[in-house]
Amino acid sequence: MKPKKSYGKELILDLHDCDSRKFNRAVLKDFFRQLCRQIDMKRSKLTWWDDYHVPKAYRQTEPHLKGTSAVQFIMTSNITIHTLDLLSHVYLNIFSCKDFDARKAAEFSRKFFDGRIVGFTTVVRK
């Protein structure tokens, strides 16, 4: 039987005990720039979802909802981040049809956010 070709890899990373002062657009934008350099990815459009410019009455206040989400599109797919301010958690997914060093990406992210890795999974897409 012919081996199946890989169509990409996804890193699913959970970080806890992070420095939540870094959970803002300016720092997260810098994170994406540095991460993409670390894993040799070319950045494209960056899209945000957070309470920025949302009236106070409509802002998220529950610990599992309050935070910033962003999608950094890359030429070979995307990088998605969800930060939870009140819990000091970061959830990161990197999917690319171009290979990358998942361990290097995880270690860079851990150091950047001053957190600890509580979940590390890679999935090869076939």
Describe it for me?
With 126 residues, the chain is of the alpha+beta class. The protein has a single domain (8-125), classed as S-adenosylmethionine decarboxylase. 21% of the residues lie in helices and 38% in strands. The chain has 2 helices and 6 strands. The protein has helices at residues 25-38, 102-113; strands spanning 8-16, 43-49, 69-74, 77-84, 89-96, 116-125. The protein has a 6-stranded antiparallel β-sheet with strand order 2-3-4-5-1-6, covered by helices on one side. A hairpin with a 2-residue loop joins strand 3 and strand 4 (77-84). The longest helix is centred in the first third of the chain and has 14 residues, at 25-38. The model has no long low-confidence stretch (mean pLDDT 93).
Write the layout of secondary structure elements.
Layout (H helix, E strand, L loop, with lengths): L7 E9 L8 H14 L4 E7 L19 E6 L2 E8 L4 E8 L5 H12 L2 E10 L1
Short overview:
The chain is an alpha+beta fold.
**Uncertain ranges:** none
Helical stretch tally:
2
- Radius of gyration, rounded? 15 Å
- Number of beta strands: 6
What CATH architecture label applies? Answer: 4-Layer Sandwich
CATH structural fold name: S-adenosylmethionine decarboxylase
Would you tell me the overall average pLDDT? 93
**Helix-residue proportion:** 10-25%
Primary descriptors:
alpha+beta; six-stranded antiparallel sheet; single chain; 126 residues; globular; S-adenosylmethionine decarboxylase
